[in-house]
């Protein structure tokens, strides 16, 4: 499982000019499920999203999580984080989970993050979305459960 995680002042997702998800201070997460992901990947990613310490404490040190600050997560399904461009300029998405499996996987992760006490807003799986991100910092972290755990 892969994610691009951005610390944000605010973020929203629109579908056909309608806002379907919006958060204020928190994390915008672009998530892709891999075809080899299993239960340990879901647990690791949910724990990482809820516990990632990228918010500043009173000393200005990044030591607080989205849970600590009472923030929220905008969790967007995005298979393109599995784009592989090692062999040319057109991305291959062979490593991404098949859509019929990825949709329930995405919903499962949304539930797991919520179960950790985090407010989660979402886009719509497989929809063409416009995501507006007001990045704070900017702080952008890449997480790959196959490489970091």
Task: Provide structural commentary.
The chain has four helices and eight strands, in the order βββαββαβαββα. The radius of gyration is 15 Å and the shape is globular. The chain has one domain (2-142): D-tyrosyl-tRNA(Tyr) deacylase (D-tyrosyl-trna(Tyr) Deacylase, Chain: A, 3-Layer(bba) Sandwich). The chain has helices spanning 39-51, 66-69, 99-115, 145-148; strands at residues 2-15, 18-23, 26-32, 55-56, 62-64, 72-77, 119-122, 130-144. The model has no long low-confidence stretch (mean pLDDT 96). By secondary structure, the protein is of the alpha/beta class. It starts with a strand and ends with a helix.
CATH arch. level architecture: 3-Layer(bba) Sandwich
How large is the count of helical segments? 4
Number of spatially distinct domains: 1
Low-confidence stretches: none
Largest sheet: 6 strands, mixed
Task: Note the run of SSEs as H and E.
Answer: EEEHEEHEHEEH
Just give the CATH class: Alpha Beta
Principal-axis shape: globular
Q: Average pLDDT, to the nearest integer?
A: 96
């Amino acid at each position: 499982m892969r994610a691009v995680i951005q610390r944000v002042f605010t973020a929203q997702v629109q579908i056909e000019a309608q806002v379907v998800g919006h958060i204020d201070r928190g994390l915008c997460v672009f998530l892709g499920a891999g075809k080899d992901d299993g239960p340990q990947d879901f647990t690791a990613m949910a724990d990482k999203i809820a516990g990632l310490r990228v918010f500043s404490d009173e000393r200005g040190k990044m030591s607080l999580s989205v849970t600590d600050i009472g923030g929220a997560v905008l969790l967007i399904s995005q298979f393109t984080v599995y784009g592989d461009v090692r062999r040319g300029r057109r991305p291959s998405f062979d490593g991404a989970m098949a859509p019929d499996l990825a949709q329930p996987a995405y919903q499962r992760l949304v539930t797991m993050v919520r179960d950790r006490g985090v407010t989660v807003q979402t886009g719509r799986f497989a929809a063409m979305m416009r995501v507006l991100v007001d990045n704070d910092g900017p702080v952008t972290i890449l997480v790959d459960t196959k490489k970091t755990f």
